[in-house]
Design a protein that fits this description.
106 residues; single chain; mainly alpha; 0% strand
């Protein structure tokens, strides 16, 4: 009896998951520091929101085209995407407001 070969995730799928789970957050952290250091408004504000939008789009592509998974390794659904978008958008807005509050107090 032959065992089925394990399913391998394509490199693009791995990179998209790595981006929405870790890479994008790291970029947002550096942009947050730049927002506080530069003052407001700045190009870093626009870059911050562009990265947030890219995270939404990459997560969508991951689920729709690359058989995306949740952080726990289960198959992701559009319900997971909506939850991700809601959490990301509210978290990003909250952090952005705090960054500008810090900037205002400095």
């Amino acid at each position: 009896m032959t065992m089925p070969a394990p399913e391998h995730t394509p490199v693009a799928g791995c990179l998209t998951r790595l981006y929405w789970m870790v890479g994008g957050v790291i970029i947002l952290i550096f942009l947050g520091y730049s927002i506080v250091a530069q003052g407001s408004p700045s190009i870093y504000d626009a870059m911050y929101w562009i990265v947030v939008l890219s995270l939404v789009l990459v997560r969508f592509a991951d689920i729709q085209f690359m058989h995306g998974q949740t952080a726990e390794g289960k198959p992701a659904t559009m319900s997971d995407w909506r939850r991700y978008v809601l959490g990301l958008a509210s978290g990003a807005l909250g952090v952005w407001l705090v960054l500008h509050g810090i900037n205002f107090m400095i």
